[in-house]
Amino acid sequence: MSGTIMKNQFDVVIVGGGPGGSLLSLILAQQGLQVALVEKQKQLERSFRGETVAASSVRILDQLGLLNRIADKGYLTVEGMAMMDKGQTIFTLDYDAFPGTFKRAIDLPQPHLLSVLLEEASKFQNFTYLNGCAFESLIRDDAQRVIGVEVSAEAGQLRQLYAKQVVASDGRYSKVRKAAGIQAQLKPVERDIIWFKLPRPKDWNDRGKLLLKGSSHVFIIPTWPDFLRVGLNIPKGGFQQLRKRGIEAFVEDVVSIAPEIAPLVREHVRSWKDVTLLDVFVASVDQWAIDGLLLIGDASHTVSPILGQGVNLAIQDAFVLGPLLTQLLRSKSTISAHDFAAYVAERKKHKTIVTNYQLKQEQNLAAHGWAATIRHYKMRLFDRLPIKYKALDRVLNYPATDAIARLAVSG
Ligand SMILES: Cc1cc2nc3c(=O)[nH]c(=O)nc-3n(C[C@H](O)[C@H](O)[C@H](O)COP(=O)(O)OP(=O)(O)OC[C@H]3O[C@@H](n4cnc5c(N)ncnc54)[C@H](O)[C@@H]3O)c2cc1C
Asked: Is the peptide bond prior to 225 cis by the omega test (within 30 degrees of 0)?
């Protein structure tokens, strides 16, 4: 590292330009605040990350006037899902049967979502996008309050970005969280997932499928424009072991559970370069805020992939935070961690509902032997009960937007 260190002052510095950080940047930029978004990647390409956006976030994107812009880039509407065991459908969800508007999830490459958020934010001169810049360290004052971040730009140049509030949205392995000394409790689940994509057959419908075989399962999710996203669970940490068996053995594992896609898998999955590993874990963080710093999205809570809730939680974190942070910046000279206490409690409620449901389903999916037989009949019974929509509505359509009014501070 050499040369002069550039210094800049902002109202808010956001580290991490995923769905959470990008949406928050847009909302704050619209309010005329000086916002810097620091993103370590130069490009937006993010294969296999957050491709399903749940209905409650679709509703938010529509409310913000962004859904049509995203539609221009392209997305696929998901109509529902089915769980199958031994060739029988044992559980179905038809998204149109949920109450309210925007009942359906959408599936799209994450760059479609991010590019719209960033293009909209870039219309504001008070928004600065620092892509290709990686967070290095926190800047603190004598009282240990976070007052900015140090980031490294291209050519190793350091920049110091000062802010009235720093927001960390740098994802599941958050470096900001570590630098702040905030601990995350990692709860590994019993599986990891290997994802890959296949061309979608013309007669395939727009519904997701979960195919079970004892404790093994394959997800098949239609995605934009004409692909199937396929995931096979493997034992936790078992990727190296799997690689030793060879790609052909992996292909046959998939085919033994999902024979209907056998020719496609054999034709398109030829090497380990064709697949992506998702290390599945649940991370809970007790402390989301210290003076000057707030964590949102995966940095504050990493969830399992069940029902595609990671992007949803990140979007809702940002959507609920935007108005509150704007009000705090306008009404207070110094914002403390305590000012976010009600926000954190509110968002933890949503996260807890999602995580509790997912952990039960993770156990359900890991069942084998007699437990898998019990699962078969339990899911068939649950499928016949209309209450299934009420139970899942809480998880899929948590009304986080109501929180905005509850959290409003007096000016
Ligand atoms: C393989 C895979 C598949 C997934 N599929 C789904 C799905 O279908 N649906 C769903 O809802 N969720 C899915 N998820 C989870 C989902 O991607 C996340 O929950 C969601 O993206 C979280 O958003 P975020 O904004 O909090 O963080 P992220 O999207 O993780 O964004 C964090 C950003 O911070 C940047 N960053 C990291 N470190 C630094 C640094 N030091 N300096 C600067 N920038 C930094 C990263 O480059 C990234 O852009 C998946 C995750 C993975 C890994």
From this structure: yes
